[in-house]
Amino acid sequence: MRRQSAEPGFWDNPDNAQKTMQELAALEADVTDWQELRSRVVELAELLDLVEDDDEDGLIDEITRDTTAAESRLKAMRLRLMMSGPHDSRDAILTVYAGAGG
After folding, report:
1. Is residue 26 helix, strand or coil?
2. Cα–chain-centroid distance for residue 84?
3. Which pLDDT value is given to residue 90?
């Protein structure tokens, strides 16, 4: 997409170009999020190795909190990934009918 945006004539169709640039920005943001999460998990694993040797309870509590936060972030990112199909950004109409149910 980056190469495509640098080609001559890319902006001849501004609507298409803008859509492509928005998609590129969203993909770059997703990649950045995954890279940051991976780095944080690697940091936590290294910290845990160091703490296991020293047996410091305060640091273990902090690592536990950070690990829980990383898990929550991972769940949110997985959900966002699951809901990133070609039609997932569109509106939906939902109708609920009351009936005789159990």
Report:
1. helix
2. 10
3. 78
Structure tokens at 75: 């769940």
Spatial separation of the C-alpha atoms in residues 4 and 17, rounded to whole Å: 9
**38-77 per-position pLDDT tens digit:** 999 999 999 888 887 776 777 888 888 999 999 999 999 9
The model scores a pTM over 0.70? no
In the 8-state DSSP scheme, what is residue 83? T
Q: What angle do CA 66, 36, 6 make, to 5 degrees?
A: 165
> Which amino acid makes up residue 49?
D
Instruction: Delimit the domains of the chain by residue range.
Output: 2-80
For the chain, what is the largest distance between any 2 Cα atoms, rounded to a whole number of angstroms? Answer: 63
Nearest 10 degrees: Cα torsion 77, 80, 81, 85? -170
Q: What is the DSSP letter of 87?
A: T
Which ranges of 1-102 would DSSP assign to H, the alpha helix? 2-6, 14-54, 57-82
